[in-house]
What we know:
By secondary structure, the protein is α/β, with parallel strands linked by helices. It has helices at 30-42, 58-67, 96-110, 129-142, 155-167, 191-197, 235-241, 244-259, 264-273, 288-295, 304-314, and strands at residues 3-5, 12-14, 16-19, 47-49, 76-81, 115-120, 145-150, 173-176, 201-202, 281-283.
Amino acid sequence: xxxxxxxxxxxxxxxxxxxxxxxxxxxxxxxxxxxxxxxxxxxxxxxxxxxxxxxxxxxxxxxxxxxxxxxxxxxxxxxxxxxxxxxxxxxxxxxxxxxxxxxxxxxxxxxxxxxxxxxxxxxxxxxxxxxxxxxxxxxxxxxxxxxxxxxxxxxxxxxxxxxxxxxxxxxxxxxxxxxxxxxxxxxxxxxxxxxxxxxxxxxxxxxxxxxxxxxxxxxxxxxxxxxxxxxxxxxxxxxxxxxxxxxxxxxxxxxxxxxxxxxxxxxxxxxxxxxxxxxxxxxxxxxxxxxxxxxxxxxxxxxxxxxxxxxxxxxxxxxxxxx
Length: 323
């Protein structure tokens, strides 16, 4: 495994991170989750991503139990808050009340004393931004959060947040977790440059476009029964990818991967890891073998010409999908 500094921090993060969205605590059995995490850990992955809303807390609990068998300082655990965790008016957002309750709830489910990286899972227009960053800074000073991040904020929102943190000497955002892959390159316009300029590391989610870039979805062939596209919770996302143009493009992408003597998944991950500002690519896995396959992406070298060729394959097909 190879490691990169998280933005301007001294924290070393593996080039691949493992996440539990829609899988751990939900569709993947606990025993398999442990095997997947063991495989990731044994192969040097030290970054594990979660969120309170994933399976309504069950994902945190399962991942916490699996990681609890390892020395606490040998891995990085992340979690998030913003999305609803109940039906009450204060069971969502980034208010002091909601952050306070969710940080403590996450720590309890994870069975850990601190969270390595805490993300604001989205920007909350209903909460005063100073209230949000002040509350998170309180947890940093208490030692319950080590680093602060955000996910899917606009460039202007990132700059505004950093401005308040600097003005009031609060702990700064150090990492952004945006959607980013060959079919979703919106962050290249202003978000990625803003992160790079201000020292935020970038850990993209969905680098394989929900598995579309793995090559498992082919023109004229049935959707695999064990694929994410068959999951009711994600099917609507996948439908935006399964267009005639994209299915034509994926054939060219597969041909390119064959020429590079790698799998489509490895090629898609290698492209992300070659992009400026990226610290780590966030992958998902429902089987240990997927971890072993994906890890090989870190050794793939791409020239500037090859990167441009890959981007041209999908240039006219870029979509926007939210998580």
